[in-house]
Amino acid sequence: NAGVTQTPKFQVLKTGQSMTLQCAQDMNHEYMSWYRQDPGMGLRLIHYSVGAGITDQGEVPNGYNVSRSTTEDFPLRLLSAAPSQTSVYFCASSLDSTGELFFGEGSRLTVL
Amino acid sequence: AQSVTQLDSQVPVFEEAPVELRCNYSSSVSVYLFWYVQYPNQGLQLLLKYLSGSTLVKGINGFEAEFNKSQTSFHLRKPSVHISDTAEYFCAVSDPRRGGAQKLVFGQGTRLTINP
Q1: How confident is the model at residue A41 (pLDDT cuts 50, 70, 90)?
Q2: Are the beta carbons of A33 and B102 separated by less than 8 Å?
Q3: From the centroid of its chain, how far is CA B25?
Q4: In chain A, fewer beta carbons within 10 Å around the N or the C end?
Q5: Closest by Cα among B29, B69, B93, B77 to A59
Q6: DSSP string for residues in B5-22
Q7: Would an 8 Å CB–CB cutoff place A38 in contact with chain B?
Q8: Which residues does chain A have within 8 Å of residue B5's beta carbon, measured at their own beta carbons?
């Protein structure tokens, strides 16, 4: 059972480039979310989804887009990368609103 | 908006000593509370959670936490730590009426270092 899988694990971008961070889960969880982790700031919610076709913004959504066409996948798109988006990104999934969040191993993004 | 304050950014402890990691949250309404652990270069794992009921919550690896509504605290404790407990620990809160565990607000993290 793979759980939550994120790709790529590492990525370096130049300012202005776009890219997509992939996230897939094989636990048939309805809820999925993206967080970013920055030193001294804990994790902050970017976007989340409560099911296929339904997404909503979190605390820090600017500069990011998401979509949820299937239960399994929840990609995060950076439209025009900025140095402020240098961070470690975590995807997570959960069975329901009271349940444990299962996290991927993270994607470390550096924007030059 | 909800917020979480972890009062110590770093806590060094000797092996087999007890430890307490402090967490305070700001909310006047009912909340869900969580502690997650992050080992180096890994994602986060749930240690324990409080949704309702008994204020003393037991989790994995011998950790426990006590919900104190009057002090808006949710401190994490372990009576005897091991080298393998070295990790970063995050306290998190959510509003059951607004997304529950899907919309967590995390504290800044506490780095626990166990010395032999």
Answers
A1: confident
A2: yes
A3: 11
A4: N
A5: B93
A6: EES-SEEEEETT--EEE-
A7: no
A8: none
